């Protein structure tokens, strides 16, 4: 029989307990203990198992600013993630698109077939999470930060009430975190085009184009990118303004050109080349 982890009793945002936790966060801005104090404050509102903070900037490898994982869990959640899977992470993609700062559920921003995608089956399932929600916000020089709160195993998802409560303090979380991590943009490549607007083509499309060079056409590159992200043929057709039948033809041609027969093989090739290229 599985024993459910003991939940921390939630406090009210107007209570003395919450004010004390919030004061602790404010006092520790700029200090090493700030992220842990922030996690403690958020846990007092709705319990969760893990938290991780990543900073994203364009095509550069993300920075892990903080995490609460054991050494064993860190391998999957941080080390493996940074070798390349982050490129297909819906939260990374959301930051790349420039979604508004705030709190999001993974399932609300992920593509329609994300949970059937090879990324989900080959990488994300290894995390053992039951749900992940994330605060996103932006720093100067085009840097985005994502603060993820995670529940694992057989634990229930965040309830609507818990999500609303965590969402209600999003302005506070973002304000504190922006001040604490204000120096993070300087840790990325100063020679990169930091303040230029996003390119018309998505990062994943540019990555696919680089990996497969002249073997596939620009349209097929778009299709490959969306297949890897977890879009269905219907979703790809809508996004590209073409018919579902045309999408299926593109997929058959792509598989033939790359000499593969499944999405699993496509993901394996992508991940292998990304990992090798970024080693």
Describe this structure in words.
The chain is of the alpha+beta class and 279 residues long. It has two domains: 16-187, Transcription factor LuxR-like, autoinducer-binding domain (Beta-Lactamase, 2-Layer Sandwich), CATH 3.30.450; 203-278, Winged helix-like DNA-binding domain superfamily/Winged helix DNA-binding domain (Arc Repressor Mutant, subunit A). The protein has helices at 16-27, 34-43, 71-82, 90-97, 106-109, 118-122, 160-168, 170-180, 203-212, 218-229, 233-240, 244-258, 263-278, and strands at 50-56, 63-67, 102-105, 129-139, 143-152. It has a five-stranded antiparallel sheet, with helices on both faces. α1 (16-27) runs antiparallel to α2. The longest helix has 16 residues, at 263-278. The chain starts with 15 loop residues before the first helix and ends with a helix. Mean pLDDT is 89; it is low at 1-5 and 193-201.
